[in-house]
Amino acid sequence: MAKKESNPTKSLKIPQFIIVSCKICAFISTKLVTKYAAKLFTTPIKHKIPKRELQMDSESEQITINVPAIDKNIVTYHYGKSDHKILLVHGWSGRGTQLFKIADELLKNGYATVSFDAPAHGKSKGKSTIMSEFIASILEIQKQFGPFEIAIGHSLGGMSVLNAIKDGLQTNKAIIIGSGDIVQDILDEFILKLELKQEISERLRNLFEEKYQVKMDDFSAYRAAQKVKIPVLVIHDNDDPEVSVKAGIHIHQQLENGTLYLTDGLGHRKILGNQNVIKKIINFIKTN
Question: In CATH, what class is 60-182+220-286?
């Protein structure tokens, strides 16, 4: 009997005990619940590598490197042998092997891929991280293993790719899949899922800006997109429950040389293995 697939257009729910914990913290003090929300927001879930990713995991050369800008070690995956290299960047709570179906197709087309477990993800050590550490990791990987002809990012990885290009990543083209857009919208959505008052979202933003001495909106994808001149393929599902399709549409509107490809019924993760999506990616890469 075929295994029943979970609904790809259904949003992942936050466990009830976490929501209850948040409400207890909020009852005690606003400061306490803001700190607790910040901890939850910066702590990814480490998933066991699914069987479908084991081939890429076993056939990759895995090299641990240090990222001096953040003084953290990350595990990198080198898949295939070719001078034509493509960088793959996973999303929040993802892994360096998550884009394996795309990677397999790239290998068939004469490319090699380099991917990585971001800090606190997969086999990389640590318990918490933020997007600026994804960006720092990308820029260090470019120094050690680049140049890359193409950069492909999923979800937070898509936001990170655009920001990395803005900050100096050299690549001929980029592809972003299910990318988030406006940081404040992401914080608002997170607080909504925790069933907290929206004022906590602003407090959360202020806490991060004070702690990391950055303006959170500077990391919004649309802002980075305005400075990106290379061709960018934006892929998003109309029914994505995690990141609204309006994010992909808005990013595309800011790009000087963007192409928008919208799908239906694939959600946020199933889109990574869809054959039509992969075909679109290969065609975009091969088109001059």
Answer: alpha beta
